[in-house]
Specification:
The complex is a heterodimer of chains A (103) and B (254).
Chain A: H1 5-25, H2 29-53, H3 58-87
Chain B: H1 4-40, H2 44-64, H3 68-93, H4 109-130, H5 150-162, H6 164-185, H7 191-204, H8 220-233, H9 239-253
Helix pairs in contact in B: 1-2, 2-3, 5-6, 7-8
The chains are: A mainly alpha (103), B mainly alpha (254).
């Protein structure tokens, strides 16, 4: 038998908190992206844990769709990053440098 | 014999639980150290490698909870594709220099972030403990365990019956993402390169090769006319008969 679901959910909450903290604190765009991935993984872990606790396969199906959306999100996001860096060649690599749309 | 059986079952259960607890502890250490490494690493490449550690830990916990298919997909898609994509972009853009994270441009940002995250985490854990973590009906979308074929078959049946329409929508989503990535990452077209490509056409369009076809540059139509004139002058092409047939051959040769 596995451990009870509390442990998994607590771990997922802590993982989500670390990811959110990194997203708020870091300035490198790529590292911010990785922190978003951490948060997505925390959500996936929560879904799989609920699927086990409630014996419901819907949670696992939802994780499947989250994985697809995460892959699409990373592809488009990194495409945007590449486009921005190509446009601003040689300039800063941080989110603070991207203030073109500032009013 | 009857007295022995419950104790052996209990011992097996205890051993299994201890093994599970050990696996959970190791995976939790992997996940948390990897996550902290992603946040505090100064080099983005190190962040990406720490992300791999976290993703493997999550995959171990997926296996531990009988989600074997999702664990495999986690390793293949995340560690195999997404992290490689991250490393590609990091090295392609050359942003892998160290960042000084001791400097904080906004003085109140970090304490504020710590406070917000701690508040959210405390609220979440409190709510979880108060609600005993999980409330709701069991097995609404189908049982995860006890189906023939294991979790892979259960997940496949669910995706291809109950969640068929979302599954089709993900196909459209992936196509849109691919097209969007191609559009975003495409280099803006340069007039210079386009010009040199079209001037290469008339040099190989005459069938028997003109003597000075290689140094024809400039306007493609002028170059084409020059090549035809060269061919006519060297007696290869008979002007009276098939000058108009020569040009379409050159066009289709492109």
């Amino acid at each position: 038998m596995s451990l009870s679901g509390d442990w998994y959910l607590g771990l997922a909450a802590v993982l989500f908190a670390i990811g959110a903290f990194g997203l708020l604190v870091r300035r490198n765009v790529l590292v911010m992206f990785m922190c978003v991935e951490l948060m997505l993984n925390a959500a996936n872990l929560t879904l799989v844990t609920f699927a086990r606790m409630l014996n419901d396969v819907g949670g696992q199906a939802l994780v499947f769709f989250v994985l697809v959306v995460a892959a699409a999100e990373v592809v488009v996001g990194l495409g945007i990053v590449v486009a921005i860096f190509r446009r601003r060649a040689g300039e800063g690599a941080t989110a603070d440098d991207l203030h073109i749309m500032k009013g | 014999m009857i007295a022995v059986l419950p104790t052996t079952v209990f011992v097996q259960l205890a051993v299994a639980t201890r093994v599970d607890a050990t696996i959970f502890a190791i995976a939790a250490v992997m996940i948390l150290s990897g996550a902290i490494g992603v946040v505090v690493a100064r080099n983005p490449v190190h962040s990406a490698l720490m992300l791999v550690l976290t993703l493997f830990g999550v995959a171990v916990l997926f296996v531990e909870q009988q989600a074997n298919f999702l664990a495999a997909v986690q390793v293949i898609v995340y560690a195999g594709a997404i992290v490689v994509l991250f490393l590609f972009v990091i090295m392609f853009l050359g942003v892998d220099r160290r960042e000084n994270i001791a400097i904080d441009p906004l003085p109140a940002q970090r304490p504020l972030a710590v406070g917000l995250v701690a508040l959210g985490l405390a609220g979440l854990l409190l709510l979880g403990v108060a609600a005993h973590w999980s409330v709701g009906a069991h097995s609404v979308a189908g049982q995860a365990r006890g189906q023939s074929g294991g979790d892979v078959a259960a997940l496949g049946r669910s995706v291809f019956t109950t969640y068929l329409f979302p599954f089709e929508v993900t196909a459209a989503l992936l196509v849109i993402a691919v097209v969007g990535a191609v559009v975003l990452a495409r280099r803006p077209p340069r007039a210079h390169r386009a010009g040199t490509e079209t001037t290469a056409l008339p040099t190989d369009s005459p069938p028997q090769g003109s003597p000075d076809g290689e140094d024809v540059v400039g306007d493609p139509m002028v170059a084409l006319a020059e090549a035809v004139a060269n061919a006519v002058a060297s007696g290869v092409v008979d002007v009276t008969e098939d000058e108009h047939e020569e040009l379409p051959v050159g066009e289709t040769g492109r």
